[in-house]
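lol ok so funny story. i was supposed to be doing the assay writeup but got distracted and ended up predicting the structure for this chain instead. priorities right. anyway since i did it might as well share w the group, maybe its usefull for someone
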Amino acid sequence: MLEMKVPSPGESISEVEIAEWLVETGDWVEKDQAIAEVDSDKATLELPAEEAGIITLMAEEGDAVAVGAVVCLIDTEAKRPASANKPKAEVEEEKEEVPNPNPVAVKTASVAKETYAKDVPSVSAKKMMDENGVSKFQGTGKDGRVLKQDVVNAMAAGFSPEATSGWGGTRDTERVKMSMLRRKVAERLVAVKNETAMLTTFNEVDMKPIMDIRAKYKMKFKEQLGVNLGFMSFFTKAVTEALNHFPAVNGMIDGKEMIVHNYADIGIAVSSPKGLMVPVVRNAERMSLAEIEAEIKRLAIKARDGKISIDEMQGGTFTITNGGVFGSMLSTPIINPPQSAILGMHNIVERAMVVDGEIVIRPIMYVALSYDHRIIDGKESVGFLVKVKEMLENPERMLFGAKDPVEVLLGL
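and the output, tada:
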């Protein structure tokens, strides 16, 4: 009998929480098969079976177990069940070959298949239903499909209680246990508020130059380099250049000393099913736009799928968070400790601006820099944000170390 113990997910982690068992007691498991998801205070990880055999669970979902504790037993001497020897395709094939004694049932099934669209919303209708809290009603489209116009008509007529998604109308409450990751995030956020002298400074960026570059080159960029040209790579590049000019923003406090990093490991906040995670792009100051885009995509996919490692989320020197993807106009982001600053991006809105004495409409993004005033002065914080704005509004300066290309040509 093999005792499976909780492996150490990383330094300083002494216990984990069983988030979900992917198998049940008595199941046959293969070697390296994922049998559980465990939450630490930094990430969610999969627990693979160490050997093949019959499993017996020793902990319940939601239990907090110490690193090194036994969570399940695997009987490695148990006989493999006959069903475990058959590939899934063969099992499905056998099911299909079972004769049906009722021909009428077959005919009924075929009719149901032909009308699969009944009461199923189209993409645009589904979006409108989600936005307005509608769960279901009869559609008027082909084969009974719910159309966008059906939702519009229902909104105009008023929804029946049966059509709503169940919100309201009761006095029920529900208690949901916070995951270990969420509890740790809560602790860290409160600690930041209590232990740092956090301030936020704001500015605005005219996004037209970058939007023009994307419109002109995004197809060629995708074809030749294999990744999309997004805004995040421009912001990351602008941030690394600004950090070079204002190194204190790239520093952190360690006791009575200040550590200043001669590199830029940029944390990119991404939303995942488990909550907000901040994977780190290492040495972003050395990367091209395409390399930054590719690395952000790789890390975001791993975070979304719950496969990102703790090492990929540790050691950042500065963080960028983009609330604009959710429609945020302005916010004061909270520092990601032990870092000393974080840049918040927001949505892009067309606003009236004065350019060369004339009022013009430009796509504007508000940006915010939250910083620890203990090691970053107002002059440095404002100067940093102005440098980021300057780089974004003049993207060609990213190629010339924040200098005007004409000055570079003239040797100034």
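Residues 302 and 308 are 5 Å apart (CA to CA). The radius of gyration is 28 Å.
back to the writeup now i swear
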